[in-house]
Amino acid sequence: MRRIMMFLNPLLIHNQKRRAQVEEIAELLSGYGSDVHLQETLSAHSAGQQAADAVAAGFDSFLVCGGDGTVFQVMQGLAGSEATLGVLPFGTGNVIAQNLRMPRDPLRAARLLINAQPREVSLGEVTLNPTGHKQMRSWYFFIAAGMGVHAALMNFAPTGQGKRRGGRLAYFVGGFRLLVDHPIQPFQLEMTTIGGATRTVTACEAIATHVPEINRWRSGGDPFAATLRVAWVPPTGRLGLGHASFHALATGKSEGHSGWGNLPFPQYVTVTRMICRPLNGTQYLAPLLVEADGEVLGASYTVIAASDKKLKLLWPARPASPQISPKEKSLSS
User: Fold this and answer.
1) How many domains does the chain have?
2) What is the pLDDT of residue 330?
3) Is 29 helix (H, G, I), strand (E, B) or coil?
4) Is the same domain home to 142 and 241?
5) Neighbour tally for 329: CB within 10 Å
6) What is the pTM of this model?
7) Within 10 A of 256 (CB to CB), how many other CB atoms are there?
């Protein structure tokens, strides 16, 4: 019998409808012989320790009822363990669920997870302030991590009721406002390729991806490889960054294409590590923010690398004609 801990983001299941969905999913899993416990995350920073404590208490399976940010926090306590992690899309972006080809309806997603098999995926690792000037700290990530305006968007995007009501539109509105208001600032980007060669460039945007898709963007990452697919943009202005973003989202054109007025295209490279650091002698109007899986972690100096830690992620099978048990029929009626 599986012992399942369902972690709930209290901000995302605040209404009665979502709470009822969670309880329905728990009843569904119990009907298949699992020992199911519900646990709200006490805070974003405590979720990882809660997960680690649950592993120590004998829980072997975890389901996250929340968005990618909640998955990110719980994952900190599961990376490298034998526990399996499943995702139920209760969030806004639900990028992990997108890459697993899961439906956005949490109950339908739960049905797919009943017979899902764990697949061992690679993780990335973000280390902030590794120079020794400040306290060093690391996080694991699955989707992407980087520095630049996109990280500022994660910090800028509304939270709470505003985010839940605005959904993905909140991010698009926020992104447009950032292109108008936020300073586009250069930083040094040092990349180490698979062969061990090192390349140092100046960039204004860099994101290391680990999944094939992030909403409309086909980033080309590989969740099973111990590498990261980096997209970066050389120093440019607002029009240039908008041009690069458009082609990343809409056309897929990258370095090597000729653009109007020498505007930059996104550039791509597969690496095992990248280092983002401020340029010497540059006065920054705003902090150079660092994000991982949509969570802003800090500023200024970071190492983003492929990690040696793995994660056992429940990967749903998609049979042509999924069987629905009498128990499920009664729950969904």
Assistant:
1) 2
2) 36
3) helix
4) yes
5) 9
6) 0.86
7) 7
Residue 211's domain comprises 124-308
Q: Are residues 209 and 323 in the same domain?
A: no
Structure tokens at 181: 């208001």
Question: What does the DSSP assignment read for 117-175?
Answer: EEEEEEEEEEEE-TTSSS--EEEEESSEEEEEHHHHHHHHS--HHHHHHHTHHHHHHHH
pLDDT at 217: 93
Joined tokens for residue 205? 């945007």
User: Residue 149 in contact with residue 179, Cβ under 8 Å?
Assistant: yes
Helix (H, G, I), strand (E, B) or coil at 86: strand
DSSP 255-272: BTB--GGGPPPPEEEEEE
Q: CA dist 277 to 91, 141, 203, 252, 285, Å?
A: 32, 20, 10, 28, 15
pLDDT in tens, 282-315: 999 988 999 999 899 988 899 999 999 999 999 9
**Between 317 and 85, whose confidence is greater?**
85
Tokens representing residue 304 in the block: 């983003």
Q: What is the CATH number of the domain that holds 171?
A: 2.60.200.40
Contacts of 292 (CB under 8 A, 6+ apart): 72, 124, 126, 139, 141, 143, 144, 145, 304
> Can you tell me the distance from the alpha carbon of 30 to that of 295, in angstroms, rounded to the nearest whole number?
33
User: What Å distances lie between residue 57 and 21, 33, 51, 292, CA to CA?
Assistant: 26, 19, 10, 28
CB 263 within 8 A of CB 236: yes
Which amino acid would we find at residue 9? N
**3-class DSSP assignment, residue 203:** strand
134 & 16 share domain: no
For 65, the enclosing helix (H) or strand (E) is strand 61-66
128-135's contacts with Cβ under 8 Å and 24+ in sequence apart are: 128/290, 128/297, 128/298, 128/301, 128/302, 129/298, 129/300, 129/301, 129/302, 130/301, 130/302, 130/303, 131/301
Query: By three-state DSSP, how is residue 242 classified?
Result: helix
CA distance 32 to 288: 48
